[in-house]
């Protein structure tokens, strides 16, 4: 059963932090993006790696202080048919991402199509250089573990006694999607759909690990695809800047 500290912790990461991002850090990032896009992205990604791990560390400390088993929150390996389905889902996603990366890498038309898909704020947050891609990889791994731990794990566990597992999972999904409002409405909808899939994976497998793997792989694959397409745009922009200087 969740304690008052557990509920305060959930309120902190699910309500207080997203509101802070929306009203304070989000507008500040937009201003930085206008002034110095490359530096703004690096600072954004650094924060997107450091802060979630600090929040997870606080939650882990709270969890351990109550001498709870990690299996209660979903850190157990699925078994039987659930294990095979989870492995199959991960392998299918890996194969899809490999094919997508290969297609974009060799086909100029595919890269042009990707550039049309990544527009607005989402395009601003995608990597365009090798250095940015490496940092984006860290963001992807962080999001995969930390967001599943927080939203499909701790949040659902804490509120399930009052809302039921599905009720807590549904509320978690709504807050999780709303927390990506910095990506615009399309980003919120897309995040909601993907989050619903992760929720079903957790429900099917009884474990967070398959959802963590899928989440990290999906984010990383999208980052690589975006980098392959947008680095050409970055190179063209650099050439134009050089020509203006000459």
Describe, in short, the structure shown.
This protein has 246 residues and is mainly alpha-helical.
Number of separate structural domains: 1
Return the string of H and E elements: HHHHHHHH
Round the Cα radius of gyration to an integer and report it.
19 Å
Assembly state (oligomeric) = single chain
> Quick one: how many beta strands?
0
Strand content: under 5%
Would you mind describing this structure in some detail?
This protein has one domain (4-245). The chain has 8 helices and no strands. It has 246 residues and is an all-alpha fold.
Which terms summarize this structure?
246 residues; globular; disordered C terminus; 8 helices; 86% helix; mainly alpha
Topology:
Elements: H1 4-35, H2 37-65, H3 80-106, H4 108-117, H5 120-124, H6 130-178, H7 184-205, H8 209-245
Helix pairs in contact: 1-2, 1-6, 2-6, 3-4, 3-8, 4-8, 6-7, 6-8, 7-8
């Amino acid at each position: 059963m969740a304690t008052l500290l557990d509920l305060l912790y959930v309120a902190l990461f699910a309500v207080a932090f997203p509101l802070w991002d929306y009203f304070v850090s989000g507008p500040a990032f937009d201003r930085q993006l206008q002034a110095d896009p490359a530096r703004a992205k690096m600072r954004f990604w650094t924060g997107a790696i450091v802060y979630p791990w600090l929040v997870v560390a606080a939650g882990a400390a709270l969890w351990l202080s109550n001498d709870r088993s990690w299996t209660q929150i979903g850190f157990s390996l699925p078994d039987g048919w659930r294990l095979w389905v989870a492995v199959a889902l991960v392998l299918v996603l890996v194969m899809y991402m490999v094919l997508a990366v290969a297609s974009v890498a060799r086909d100029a038309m595919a890269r042009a199509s990707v550039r049309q898909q990544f527009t607005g704020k989402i395009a601003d947050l995608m990597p365009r250089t090798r250095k940015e891609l490496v940092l984006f990889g860290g963001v992807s791994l962080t999001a995969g573990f930390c967001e599943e731990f927080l939203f499909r794990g701790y949040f659902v566990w804490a509120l399930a006694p009052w809302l039921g597992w599905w009720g807590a999972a549904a509320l978690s999904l709504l807050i999780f999607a709303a927390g990506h409002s910095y990506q615009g409405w399309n980003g919120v909808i897309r995040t909601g759909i993907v989050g619903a899939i992760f929720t079903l994976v957790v429900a099917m497998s009884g474990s967070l690990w398959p959802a963590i793997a899928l989440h990290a792989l999906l984010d990383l694959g999208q980052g690589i695809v975006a980098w392959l397409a947008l680095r050409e745009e970055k190179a063209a922009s650099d050439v134009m800047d050089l020509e203006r200087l000459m």
